[in-house]
Amino acid sequence: YDASKTITLAGPIKELKYTNPHCLVWLEVDGKKWECVLAPPFRMENRGIPDGLMKPGMPVTVVGYASTAHEGEMRAERITLEGKSVELR
Hints:
The chain is 7% helix and 51% strand. By secondary structure, the chain is mainly beta.
């Protein structure tokens, strides 16, 4: 991941997986599908995002670093949903 530059993606969740080793959400932003690698489920729960809170269609904003190895992938450092911003690392 390119930790020298953050990117911000905002849009509705198209798909999600709340599983180990990391939770994942997919967003479509400007016609491009992005896979956002979030934190592990235990950390998501500890930070106030339990399984079932996020749903397809829910608008979110994700800030993180683009992958240098996989086009359309990013590692999320922060997610904002329902007016609440949560640090993931």
